Amino acid sequence: MTRPSKRRPDELRPVTLERNVARYAEGSCLVSFGNTKVLCTASLEERGPPWLRGSGRGWVTAEYSMLPRATHERTRREVTSGKPSGRTQEIQRLIGRSLRAVTNLPALGERQVTIDCDVIQADGGTRTASITGAWIALRDCFAWMQARSIISVDPLRDHVAAVSCGIHQGSPVLDLDYAEDSAAETDANFVMTGSGGIVEVQGTAEGKPFSQEELLAMLALAKGGIADLVALQKAAIAP
Questions:
Q1: Is 125 one of the annotated binding-site residues?
Q2: Which of 59, 68, 147, 238 is most buried, with most CB under 10 Å away?
Q3: Bridge partner list, 163
Q4: Annotated binding residue at 13?
Q5: Are 218 and 172 spatial neighbours (Cβ–Cβ below 8 Å)?
Q6: 111-137 average pLDDT score
Q7: CATH T-level fold of 15-237
């Protein structure tokens, strides 16, 4: 089996994590997974959502959108339809859950951090790239808050990153680009922490159902890929 990109089955696309790309945001990261590029920004609000008022803990949430020419043909802006699509809502909830899984919310106080993930260019794996870059933006937002004595401790408990896996031409492969994603028999997304904990697994058989052995093979690929992504996160934030 030869992948369209000529990569090995366990090989990520070239990944870059560029920090401090948005001048006014408390934290920001431009993340690239190959030709997929997402701008992630973190914005601090000095109040939490109304339903958490008086609880003593904060909140981390996310919004996701795709620019009209992020794809081969122009897609209509969702704002013109009056509401986000079901896909958009599902992805932004996934990003929020992933970040909250590694955040000590009481340490944040009654504040909210909103992560905006805007897809500049899409070539598969936009949600996994968003989660990986969003962690950088959130981490830098928390560092900004600590530097100004807004919070006394870092609320982050661990790294979190995400990667896609799939069954392509009968073989498990890591980090699908669009050419593979559009033709894969199985498509899955794995969100994991730096210590190896599983936050979420999304898996769908596009053709025939996949086996337990194939699921475990994809999980093994994902663990290796996320370990590499966490190493890149650590390198990106190193002094």
A1: yes
A2: 59
A3: 190
A4: no
A5: yes
A6: 98
A7: Ribosomal Protein S5; domain 2 (3.30.230)
